[in-house]
Amino acid sequence: MLDLTGKNALVTGIANNRSIAWGIAQQLNAAGANLGVTYLPDEKGKMEKKVAELVEPLNPSLFLPCNVQNDEDLKSTFNAISDKWGSLDILIHCLAFANKEDLSGDFSQTSRSGFNLALEISTYSLVQLAGYAKPLMTQGGSILTLTYLGGVRAIPNYNVMGVAKAGLETSVRYLAAEMGPQNIRVNAISAGPIRTLASSAVGGILDMIHHVEQVAPLRRTVTQLEVGNAATFLCSDLASGITGQVLYVDAGYEIMGM
Q1: For the chain, which residues make up each domain, given as ranges?
Q2: Cα–Cα distance between 73 and 46 in angstroms, integer?
Q3: I want to staple 164 with a disulfide (CB 3.0 to 4.6 A). Which of 79, 122, 156, 192 is the partner?
Q4: How far is CA 187 from CA 62, 144, 157, 241, 248, in A?
Q5: How many helical (H) and strand (E) elements, i.e. helices and strands, does the chain have?
Q6: So what's the pLDDT on residue 201?
């Protein structure tokens, strides 16, 4: 029943084979979506090479550099989508960053520059990407981002990223309200802790994972592919009545009181 054949999907945020974005890309591809993939460019081209080798089996029809802090990159990315595909059906936003020193210790010691950087990349980038995607979603579409429980509860060492995720979830609601009349749905998945390149910067991430394995109803955390399955559902017509929501894919941990 879950068929994305003929749908054009842009996936951001793949860094390596542990990335949640990689799990999402795999499941979108399995459902028949036509993939476009962005990567974060660097001077030596290491990220381009790494991501290109990883996604090669998925045969993406677009493979583009995109640094969301660079307006020209954003324009080039969506101009390429317009030129190659003509329209966009699915946008996957898997972008988050904070300085490592802001992901441990006292939250009150977060620097102004670190606070602004975390919110620019982790929160505002969704607003930016959605704004560029909206004119290309001429037949409606689905925008999906990734959040975490630290956006609604205080999680040790998550600090400024919790503020960024809270802003991200609020942005989901405002974007959903804006874009609903164009039949564009905007949702978020709140995934349980997974050991990724991004999460490794959070102090005590392994302790967080072990705690979830002990407390969550399923007595485990989740995998990238499980998040990918939920993402594929939310991007499909099976979820046509769902927008502005945060779906928890965390083995049930969010429901527990202690």
Answers
A1: 8-251
A2: 18
A3: 122
A4: 24, 5, 26, 11, 11
A5: 8, 7
A6: 58
The owner of tokens 């842009």 is 10
Beta bridge partners of 187: 144
Average pLDDT over residues 242-253: 97
Average pLDDT over residues 106-119: 97
Look at the block and give the residue holding tokens 């009349």: 181
Fold topology of 8-251 = Rossmann fold (3.40.50)
Q: Show binding-site residues.
A: 13, 19-20, 95, 98, 165, 194-198
Residue 195 corresponds to which tokens in the numbers above?
């050991």
Tell me the pLDDT tens digit for each residue of 132-158: 999 999 999 999 999 999 999 999 999
Binding site, annotated residues for substrate: 98
Just list the catalytic residues.
Answer: 148, 158
Average pLDDT over residues 58-71: 97
Nearest CA-CA partner of 127 in 77, 151, 93, 86:
93
